[in-house]
Amino acid sequence: MRRDKRRGRKKVCSFCVDKVETIDYKSVDKLRKYVTDRGKIMPRRISGTCAPHQRQLTAAIKRARIIALLPFTAE
């Protein structure tokens, strides 16, 4: 009869709230929020994004890295 005491508010997808249809790889300041200081992409359970937007976010971050808008790793 042990209950989970860590129940908090469910995270909502910020892209769904803003009604974003596609995530642009050129909006670096928005993408940087979803990358850790070591350069890793934050997982869904931490960032709170929904699955479709997480897939778009990952692709956008990878594109931004390839054309050198975002670093692959921390300096």
What this model shows, in words?
With 75 residues, the chain is mostly helical. It has a domain at 18-67: Irregular (30s Ribosomal Protein S18). The chain is built from four helices and no strands. The chain has helices spanning 14-17, 28-32, 44-47, 51-66. The relative contact order is 0.21.
Question: What would a concise description of this structure say?
Answer:
GO terms for molecular function: small ribosomal subunit rRNA binding; structural constituent of ribosome. With 75 residues, the chain is mainly alpha-helical. The chain contains four helices and no strands.
Question: How is this fold's topology laid out?
Answer:
Layout lengths: L13 H4 L10 H5 L11 H4 L3 H16 L9
From the structure above, extract its key features.
Ribosomal_bS18_sf; structural constituent of ribosome; Ribosomal_bS18; 30s Ribosomal Protein S18; mainly alpha; Ribosomal_bS18_CS; ribosomal protein; 4 helices
